[in-house]
Design the sequence.
């Protein structure tokens, strides 16, 4: 009973049977009504035909001729005078028929059916008045046995019941195959999703259907691919984190062991300085991992407020320019007076990250430039350098977690591979976008676009 194909099949069958029953009832009653009405009209028309003849020749010869015409027919005729006395009738003529014509019928000149019930009476009866110069001379009564109508009704009922039975059987067969046609792909997809939940990300069998089931299969295939990719990324991420943690811990343990040995004080201070640097790198890595974890859980708070972006960038510039000067590199600032709704602390974190990267990857004598411009309803912040640039094949991946362009020099540069992914997340949570333009040997430009307005 819990099987979807059974439920769907039962629902389809109920709907189909309901429609069939309604249609059969309307068709059956309509055909039956029309057939009986045709019998009544034919009987009345026959009576009116005899009446028309008698209106022109109301004599014994004509009366006998009318009775003779109906003597061998299934229908019977009786003709009365104006006082409803029986003049002539076709044989056999029963006492029941005589009783039915004793009352003068209230009919118009066109005649009428005076007994139309076929279920409880043996005859259908019509009466057609005979006139001579608007003077009523008598009536023509026509009788049709209702036994033939009941026989017709029984035959029609049998045919409809047979048709209904065949329709019922065919409907069951049709619904069975239709429900299987619809539900089998769903059942197959259910089994596949179970296997996916167990970690088996094999390709989903293609369902070549241009309908919702085909779209569902494609969606499950896409989901399976995404899960497989996320699983691989998770494993790679954990392996990278293990490596990133193991390296500074190895340095810390190794140099701590050396520092505890009897060595020269100057040498000891050198090793302690290395331990301090490695501890700071480890602390930064843990901090960035903690921020990424909060982002994944949607616990990374962004508190926006109206900020003068030109003043914020000027403040950052004044703080970091001495560092550039110390390394014999120049830092430029080109800004316009604009404001935007941002989290000042988080946005500054992004700027410092980009400037730190630019500082590391720009050679002595190189230049880094901060440019802030306004556009219609938005502001654009570009941080560019003329350093070593990013290889073309690496550009699509630089915002991925733990991705580093130059793995062999990662210890020298000190990066964890998390800064850009955090920066991208922060910008997107501000409702902005970030993109990169880079060329090996010529430099890199990071472009941030967020909503903002110029200050008039």
Sequence:
């Amino acid at each position: 009973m819990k099987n979807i194909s059974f439920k769907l099949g039962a629902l389809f069958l109920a709907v189909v049977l309901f429609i069939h029953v309604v249609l059969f009832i309307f068709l059956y009653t309509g055909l039956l009504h029309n057939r009986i009405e045709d019998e009544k009209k034919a009987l009345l028309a026959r009576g009116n035909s005899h009446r028309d003849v008698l209106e022109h020749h109301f004599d014994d010869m004509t009366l006998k001729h009318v009775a003779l015409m109906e003597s061998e027919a299934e229908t019977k005729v009786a003709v009365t005078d104006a006082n409803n006395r029986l003049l002539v009738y076709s044989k056999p003529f029963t006492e029941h028929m005589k009783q039915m014509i004793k009352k003068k019928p209230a009919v118009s000149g066109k005649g009428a059916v005076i007994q139309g019930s076929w279920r409880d009476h043996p005859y259908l009866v019509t009466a057609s008045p005979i006139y001579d110069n608007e003077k009523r001379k008598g009536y023509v009564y026509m009788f049709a046995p209702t036994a033939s109508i009941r026989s017709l009704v029984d035959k029609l009922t049998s045919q409809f019941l047979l048709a209904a039975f065949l329709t019922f059987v065919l409907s069951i067969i049709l619904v069975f195959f239709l429900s299987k046609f619809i539900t089998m792909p769903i059942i197959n997809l259910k089994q596949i999703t179970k296997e996916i939940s167990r970690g088996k990300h094999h390709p989903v069998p293609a369902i070549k259907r241009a309908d919702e089931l085909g779209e569902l299969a494609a969606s499950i295939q896409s989901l399976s691919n995404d899960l497989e990719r996320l699983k691989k990324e998770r494993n790679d991420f954990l392996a990278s984190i293990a490596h990133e943690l193991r390296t500074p811990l190895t340095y810390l343990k190794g140099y701590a062991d050396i520092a505890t040995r009897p060595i020269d004080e100057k040498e000891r201070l050198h090793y302690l300085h290395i331990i301090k640097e490695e501890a700071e790198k480890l602390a930064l890595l843990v901090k960035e991992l903690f921020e990424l974890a909060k982002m994944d859980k949607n616990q990374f708070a962004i508190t926006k407020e109206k900020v003068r972006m030109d003043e914020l960038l000027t403040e950052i510039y004044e703080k970091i320019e001495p560092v550039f000067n110390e390394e014999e590199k120049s830092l430029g600032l080109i800004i316009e007076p604009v404001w935007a709704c941002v989290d000042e602390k988080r946005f500054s974190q992004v700027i410092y990250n980009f400037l730190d990267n630019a500082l590391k990857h720009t050679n002595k004598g190189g230049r880094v430039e901060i440019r802030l411009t306004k556009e219609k309803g938005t502001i654009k912040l570009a941080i560019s350098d003329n350093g070593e640039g990013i290889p073309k094949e690496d550009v699509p991946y630089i915002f991925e977690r733990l991705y580093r362009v130059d793995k062999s020099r990662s210890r020298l540069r000190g990066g964890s591979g998390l800064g850009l992914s955090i920066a991208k997340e922060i910008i997107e949570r501000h409702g902005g976008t970030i993109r990169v333009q880079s060329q090996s040997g010529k430099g890199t430009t990071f472009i941030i676009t967020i909503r903002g307005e110029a200050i008039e």
